[in-house]
Amino acid sequence: MQYSWPLIGHQNVRNYFTKAFSAGRIHHAYLFQGPSQVGKDTFARMLVNTLLCKDEQVRPCGKCQGCQAFARGAHPDVLTLVRGEDASIGVEKAREFIASISLKPLLGAWRIGMIEGAAQLTKEAASALLKTLEEPPLRVVLFLVSAVELLPTITSRCQRIRFGFVPAQDIAEYLAANSAAFTGTGYREVAQLAAGRPGRAIELTQPAAYETRMRELTEVDGLLDQSEAARIVFAVARFGGKGDLAEKREACLEFIEVLQYALRKRLRLDKGFVSLLKNTFKAEAYLQANVDPKLVMECLLFS
Ligand SMILES: [Zn+2]
């Protein structure tokens, strides 16, 4: 059996799954952990597709009934548990998911559940899931994806797969080799700017997104020369006020990404920015754990 997983980077992870799947070793629950936009969700979806595919030579084949249903987002054996419009993934949704995942497979060999943004499970929802993780129904595979640490009770019941940042070289090479799929050029620069995140790099191949990112970079870089007071004023103006909390969190995370890039550039000349760079990683963790975005950004920019 051959596996077709066109993932950018993460060769070690792909090797692991090639060996495991070839040997028929399929764990009942995987936890994919690592920074955002590095390919965790993408690879989880590729594996889900692989498990649903019925081809005898290459999986996923993209042609069989299982692959086509999956591509349309209409495979009856694939269930997703996501936050959606809610602030978190509540216990009601989790219970529905568990009931549904426990049914027999309809089309293929597996019943597959995906929990993206697993850190957004409420405590109650997480406890409701524990039994399913502990004693999973036959023919069930779960993929949990998270950018941050989860409760040890969850982590210990899953096969944990860690995803790191992807070298810029790998990203640039992939973009160049698949250039027909992308509109922009200057892949080396785009790969640098994406700072190890292939998902971001693909977004930045769009000229409009690239220009926006460059503008933000100039703004953030200028902010580093300003006083703490001026930075706080900026944080309040940019991240304060009313609005959807989830959207705000996303905006803060993107801002931090740009800030990290600016800091890394500065660090080559001035080691004084080390602590601020370290704090950006803490800030990311706080944001992922649902701490108020404005508070996180104030603390970050005041440090
Ligand atoms: Zn197929």
Explain this structure to me?
The protein is an alpha/beta fold. It has 3 domains: 2-162, P-loop containing nucleotide triphosphate hydrolases (Rossmann fold, 3-Layer(aba) Sandwich), CATH 3.40.50; 165-205; 211-302. Helix content is 53%, strand content 10%. The chain contains 14 helices and 7 strands. The protein has a 5-stranded parallel β-sheet, with helices on both faces. Strands 1-3 form a two-stranded parallel sheet. The longest helix has 23 residues, at 245-267. The mean pLDDT is 92. The structure holds zinc ion.
Helix and strand content put the structural class at: alpha/beta
The helical percent reads 40-55%
What is the CATH superfamily label of the largest domain? P-loop containing nucleotide triphosphate hydrolases
Number of helices in the DSSP assignment: 14
Note the quaternary state here: single chain
Between the first and last Cα atoms, what is the distance in angstroms? 53 Å
- Encode the helix/strand succession as letters: EHEHEHEHEHEHEHHHHHHHH
| Strand line-up across the major sheet | 4-5-6-2-7
In the CATH classification, which architecture of the largest domain applies? 3-Layer(aba) Sandwich
Beta strands, count? 7
List its traits:
globular; binds zinc ion; two-stranded parallel ribbon; 5-stranded parallel β-sheet
Question: What's the quick description here?
Answer:
Helix content is 53%, strand content 10%. The protein is an alpha/beta fold and 303 residues long. Helix 8 packs across helix 9, helix 11 runs antiparallel to helix 14 and helix 13 packs antiparallel against helix 14.
